[in-house]
């Protein structure tokens, strides 16, 4: 069954009481690939991961993961996967080595074999020195690495990573990315969720953009970025009249208008030619634009382009970057 | 590939339970605040009752002799109820998902906490008896009596720890779970733990005589002091077995409801 997908989901739905969290999600993830579910908080990313990893039964729909049905063959699915959730799943009061030995024992390894496996994982995740310290003393990045190590006692066929880099500093984020790339080289299928377009772009073969429990776009990173033009030109007008003129000229192309700052944005491919052409078109008399900046597209731009509405979460986050 | 094959052999329930027990005991020992509370609160309470209140209480024997079995049960109840906090910590953090994704059963995780609770409570009981001995408590028990007393106590701790585990599954935060310890702390007061029931107002006799703490305390008292136990031992066993059965069922149902 070499061409059977690692994950295949059809019509997944999930409601908590009256709240519909997933509204018909279809997914297909090829073996050995990296698939990224991209979306803001509350879009249904974590729920999707929990359903696919058998932790939560769907209200409707079916899925097969690592060759088994997530409802009827839960134990078989669980033997083929590992999950690293958003909350750190290690004990603060145990040392890194103790946590890993415990996980190894739960996988059926005994005494010296468990010890050896824990040691190898500490080594691989650059935690050997910290191995005998309690996790409470670890930095966010070290916890994340230990958490990943704990999910790799066995070599699972499919690894779920739910927002693996949220809240990490750039260096730790880089380390997590390296781990993901290494796993992929070993032929593991990776399903990861993220709020960062850049992360999905760097890691994923396929990206699905999820919003309000639905998949609103799916494709290669390049395809998605074509839809959002890849970059964004931010314009600041010198006075309200000029601002009105800019918005008028932009028409439906105007995004993220901020009258209080006299700022408005427009999609661009980021090339000098296109930016120059836009500026000339929008401001032929060279009076209406006081300043401009060019940014690479953020999750918010993807959302605006795909759904016609902004995320509330990502605006804050991109503002902080 | 052969390594992967052996690694993916499903671990047994017994093996899981053993690993979880080792984990819970280690976590108990390293939770310094909790450990100090669990070990020294019993001793403080005993000293409080013997020296501050004891002078005013007539029980027909030395008060220390009367009160030590009550303190043991009060503290075992309190110590058991701390299980709720440990369970809620697991339920609200990410680790329960990790365990479940590894197909470790909830029973193994909760059972580990219950066994750790038994170990913790035996430690605090030994400490209470030692300090009690220093201040004049002289048990009159032979070996079979001691064995019987320990058995009743362990059964009591197991039953109330499972109740606490069920509460811990239900609670949404460790603070909420902590509230349960207060309820269990107060349950021994309207019983024969600290003063004879016939000194209490008559309207409370019905509750005090027929609540589960009283037969447990009376059988501990009888067994440790070598006085007649009467039917309180059987009543204690029946109460604890009943509570245990209900708690196990409740924990299992609540666990399943909580994870969906």
From TrEMBL, chain A:
Membrane topology: Peripheral membrane protein
Domain of life: Bacteria
GO molecular function, one term: ATP binding
Main location: membrane
Localization annotation: Cell membrane
Keyword Membrane: yes
SMART domains: AAA
Limits of the ABC transporter domain: 7-237
One Pfam family, short name: ABC_tran
GO biological process: daunorubicin transport; doxorubicin transport; response to antibiotic
Any single GO CC term annotated in Swiss-Prot or TrEMBL for this entry: plasma membrane
Keyword terms: Antibiotic resistance, ATP-binding, Cell membrane, Membrane, Nucleotide-binding, Translocase, Transport
NCBIfam families: drrA
Family assignment from sequence similarity: Belongs to the ABC transporter superfamily. Drug exporter-1 (DrugE1) (TC 3.A.1.105) family.
Protein's UniProt name: ABC transporter
Species this chain originates from: Actinophytocola xanthii
